[in-house]
Amino acid sequence: MAPKPPFEFVRVRGAREHNLKNVDVDVPRNALVVFTGISGSGKSSLAFGTLFAEAQRRYFDSVSPYARRLIDQVGVPEVDSIDGLPPAVALQQARGSAGSRSTLGSVSMMSNLLRMLYSRAGLYPPGQPMLFAEDFSPHTPQGACPTCQGLGFVYDVTEKAMVPDDTLSIRERAIAAWPPAWHGQNLRDILVTLGYDVDTPWRDLPRKDRNWILFTEEQPTVPVYAGFSPAETRAALRRKMEPSYQGTFTGARKYVLHTFATTPSELMKRRVSRFMSGTVCPACEGKRLKAEALSVTFAGLDIGALSRLPMDRLAEVLEPAATGSTAPLPATAARASGRKPRAQPERAGHAGAPDVLRTPHLSEEKRMAAQRIAHNVLERVRTMQDIGLGYLSLDRQTPTLSSGELQRVRLATQIHANLFGVVYVLDEPSAGLHPADGVALLAALDRLKAAGNSLFVVEHDMAVMQHADWIVDVGPEAGEHGGHVLYSGPLEGLRLVTQSHTARHLFGQAEPGHRAVRAPSGWLQLAGISCNNLHRVDAAFPIGVLSAVTGVSGSGKSSLVGHALVDLMADHLGHEPAGTEPADDEETRVGAVVSEGRIAAGADAFRRLVKVDQKPIGRTPRSNL
Questions:
Q1: Residue spans of alpha helices (H) in 240-363
Q2: FRET pair for 7, CA 20 to 30 Å: which of 243, 335, 369, 414?
Q3: Which pLDDT band holds residue 325 (cuts at 50, 70, 90)?
Q4: Of the options 3.90.1150.10, 3.40.50.300, 2.50.20.20, 3.40.50.1360, the CATH number for the domain spanning 522-605
């Protein structure tokens, strides 16, 4: 056999990262290489912990010490040598940024292009000055809605949230929103001085008194007699005794909102956020922009409405602008957005901001510039469609995306970047993807490979394995019984590896598991569920058995189970699900999607709710099992 040309393969010698057993392996470049094996066998340790970590370390060696401080670095991998390793990009399973301002549009950079498109090619109302791209951004002071500060939600508190148990008295801490310890006792003592009844159950107090205690903006300062009973306090006031101190009262609502806005303590902010709820901003209708920006339209839609379109419909709206053909009429854009067409006011392209479709008198240079922006956006949208994400909209918040969806968004960004000679290391890109959408994913991987790149994919999906140019099977078992490369070569050769669990399942040699079918003990019935793309859906789940909820990507599985079912059961049980972490960004938590609907039957069969999601268990390097 002729010797392999240099750098045709990435040569790994003596890899000992985690449970790898002094592994030697050659991995081809410019190919789709799939790392297989059971969970814990060591495939991620080889692909990410060794190959990607070494590529990143070599890159850091070439940058300045100052720049290294700004980048998260992985450790030096335990390996003797790696030859022929190109620069690497990792696309791992990770949830979206916790920030409520992070959206699909901001992650993919398409929102920036749309802002430029509206600035340069939008239709302005008569007499309105030209707006710059920053004026169409909810993340800048000049573009954000002044009512909601660019969040799309306004936050407030309700009596039910602040007083969860109205059978308690004020002395028994009925007002849960008030601070604990001395500060809360101080507010109760002030109410005694003011003459309010702190020993009667909250629900029996006059409505006028309850409203004042919770919602007043007044802040009276009164004498406080610490440790005195109400009768003793009244007597002390009559005798004008020297008080323990002068105390200032703060209403419960004012305390919650002020603490949330000003406290530097994350613990305090997290505590008071439990009493807040978010509603759509009435000024911008959730579009997060000031009125001047929303008055500018393109193809009959303002930028907020355009960002809410699924990308499949967004492509239809942008197609005429990108190709320079006739613009879709406002009625066409209205149909694309799912609303009825309405009469449009007289508008004109701004003198400094040409509308590529409706101002033919403008210079060819300006017309071409606007057309290029629309074409650039459309190209990115097409890439998203190609990998099965056409159902998403640009205003979709990244924390609501599954890890698989977010990884495919990053994959689409890399496809559009047109890099050459790079190793892409991917962590189960098929995760959460319905088999019907798998063809689009494989086509996207082929596009990256055809551009002159190498793909190292950690994967369990059989369709991806069968599509691979090369298989690296790691095992045979997990943990200390794994860490060996059982096979490295074309797919067909794996058939002969008797130790491989992958081979037995891939080539139909494994016996399928069998078990007795259990009968449900009852049914949990949900009625009228509306959440994200679910609209008045009824669903029934069998009790006491394992149920699987399936459907193509974007069909509403997570909305039904992860949002609606969890929200309704938590409300019925009166507590948050066990196993959930507090939101990193409290603005995201209080402004989360509210599920509508009800539990029609079966809720009484449950006493506790536990939610297990894809969020990482630990938050710091010190976190361990």
A1: 252-262, 266-273, 291-294, 303-308, 311-323, 330-337
A2: 414
A3: low
A4: 3.40.50.300
Rg (CA), the chain: 30
Give the pLDDT band (50/70/90) at residue 621: low
Residue 45 tokens, joined? 């340790």
Domain ranges of the chain: 9-94+401-506, 104-146+292-386, 157-279, 522-605
Choice between 457 and 179, residue whose per-residue pLDDT is larger: 457
**What integer best gives the mean pLDDT of the chain?**
84
Question: How sure is the predictor about 272, in pLDDT bands with cuts at 50, 70 and 90?
Answer: confident
CA separation, residue 265 to residues 38, 262, 370 (Å)? 43, 9, 47
* Cα separations in angstroms, 278 against 153, 162, 239, 316: 6, 15, 48, 33
Q: Do domains 9-94+401-506 and 522-605 have the same CATH topology?
A: yes
CB neighbourhood size of 606 (10 A): 13
CB 441: neighbour CB atoms within 10 A?
Answer: 22
Q: How many CA atoms lie within 13 A of 570 on its CB side?
A: 17
Q: Which residues contact 379 (CB under 8 A, 6 or more apart)?
A: 416
Strand partners of residue 289: 144
Predicted TM-score of the model (pTM)? 0.72
The encoded tokens of residue 115 equal 């802002």
CATH number of 9-94+401-506: 3.40.50.300
How many CA atoms lie less than 13 Å away from 475 in the CB half-sphere?
21
Percent of the chain with pLDDT over 90: 49
Q: For residues 369 and 121, what is the distance between their CA atoms, to the nearest angstrom?
A: 9
- Check if the beta carbon of residue 145 is closer than 8 Å to that of residue 283: yes
**Measured between alpha carbons, how far is residue 319 from residues 244, 251, 341 in Å?**
74, 55, 19
Q: What is 104-146+292-386's CATH number, 1.10.10.10, 1.20.1580.10, 1.10.1040.10, 1.10.287.90?
A: 1.20.1580.10
How distant, in Å, are the alpha carbons of 254, 303, 390, 460 from that of 404? 41, 28, 14, 13
The answer, yes or no, to whether residue 253 has pLDDT greater than 70, is yes
CATH topology of domain 157-279: Helicase, Ruva Protein; domain 3 (1.10.8)
Using the structure block, give the residue that is written with the tokens 């699900």: 577
**% of the chain exceeding 70 in pLDDT:** 84
State which amino acid sits at residue 522.
G
CA torsion sign, 252 to 258 to 261 to 266? negative
* CB neighbourhood size of 289 (10 A): 27
